[in-house]
Amino acid sequence: MQQKIKIGALVSGGGTNLQAILDACDSGRIDGEVVFVGSDRPEAKGLDRARVQDIATFSVDYGAIIRRHKDAASSDTPPADFDLDEVWQKQDLFGPDVDAKEVKAFLTTRAVAEHRLLELMKPFGVDLLVLAGFMRNLTPYFIDRFNADRNRPNIMNIHPALLPSFPGVDGYGDTFRYGCKVGGCTVHFIDYGEDSGPIIGQRAFTITESDDLDAIRRKGLESEWVLYPECIQMFAQGRIRVVTATHTPCGKTIVQRKVVKIAQGDGPAS
Questions:
Q1: Kind and range of the H or E element at 179?
Q2: What is residue 39's DSSP assignment?
Q3: How confident is the model at residue 270 (pLDDT cuts 50, 70, 90)?
Q4: Which residues pair with 159 in a beta bridge?
Q5: What is the C-alpha separation between 164 and 256, in angstroms, rounded?
Q6: At the N or C end, where does the chain have fewer CB atoms within 10 A?
Q7: How far is it, in rounded angstroms, from Cα 268 to Cα 249?
Q8: Within 13 Å of residue 71, how many CA atoms lie on the same side as its CB?
Q9: What is the distance, to the nearest Å, from the Cα of residue 173 to the centroid of all Cα atoms in its chain?
Q10: Could you give the 3-state DSSP secondary structure of residue 119?
Q11: Chain centroid offset of residue 46 CA
Q12: Whether 255 contacts 246, CB under 8 Å
């Protein structure tokens, strides 16, 4: 019998992907168990889905931390192991033209919130963290402390577009506005950028002339509910391996990128 992995989940909203994961665990389609659900919003409805199944829940109010940061009297201080310069150099969320004060405020408040998340998550000792509609970018501060082995990533996200097209918060909206004839969703590992980590799986659907944005979102969600559990199960089976691929596009400078290789069947990746 396949040993079950311990899964943690982070949500920001209603948690429909979380529900798909919980259902897949219950039915045996995922050899795993969700042991906690956390959120950046105390009122997130996804937390209720966990409570119904007696799964531990917690929240770190990102919004309150950000608001307090704007108040000179705020008592929030970054954790002792936070190095602003180090995190700034590693992150790939902001380009060089972004206001330095804005970047500093973002990374500092994130470190406060992420440190609290890590402390709340620590007792559970999870094998995999899934972002199920978690609407906050994780910074290198969090990633490096949760994912100690960068060659074995263990933070997954699902994105509402066929990456690398349309990163960001409105993938289905961008798909619709560009007049795409095919839409889809992507499960990927988290890295230091926005929706830029190694792609694990994708699922596509046809867009017809009669499809409006609501129809595209509905097709997208239905695809997400299938794809995410499938990718988590491949992780549970040990079938996922991340390798460095080297390319020389059009004879130009060599480009290296982390990509996912998936072993066939139930065996681990070699």
A1: none
A2: E
A3: very low
A4: 186
A5: 16
A6: N
A7: 31
A8: 9
A9: 19
A10: helix
A11: 15
A12: yes
Q: Which two tokens stand for residue 72?
A: 């000179």
Which H or E run includes 135?
Answer: none
Closest CA to 83 of 135, 152, 144: 144
| Residues with active-site annotation | 159
Segment 187-215 shows an average pLDDT of: 97
Question: pTM for this one?
Answer: 0.93
Token pair, residue 161, equals 């577009």
Q: Is 189 or 254 the better-scoring residue by pLDDT? A: 189
Amino acid at 10: L
Per-residue pLDDT band at 57 (split at 50, 70, 90): very high
User: Inter-axis angle of helices 62-69 and 100-121, to 10 degrees?
Assistant: 140
Is residue 71 pLDDT above 50, yes or no?
yes
**What confidence tens digit (pLDDT) does each residue in 79-104 have?**
999 999 999 999 999 988 899 999 99
Average pLDDT over residues 193-218: 97
Per DSSP, the three-state class of 102 is: helix
CB within 8 Å of 12: residues ≥ 6 apart: 39, 40, 41, 44, 46, 133, 134, 135, 136
208-211, long-range: CB < 8 A, 24+ apart:
none
| Alpha helices (runs of H) in the chain, residue ranges in sequence order | 16-27, 46-52, 62-69, 84-90, 100-121, 140-146, 171-177, 213-236
**Which CATH code for domain 5-240?**
3.40.50.170
Contact between residue 127 and residue 6 where contact means Cβ atoms under 8 Å apart: yes
* Amino acid type, 7: I
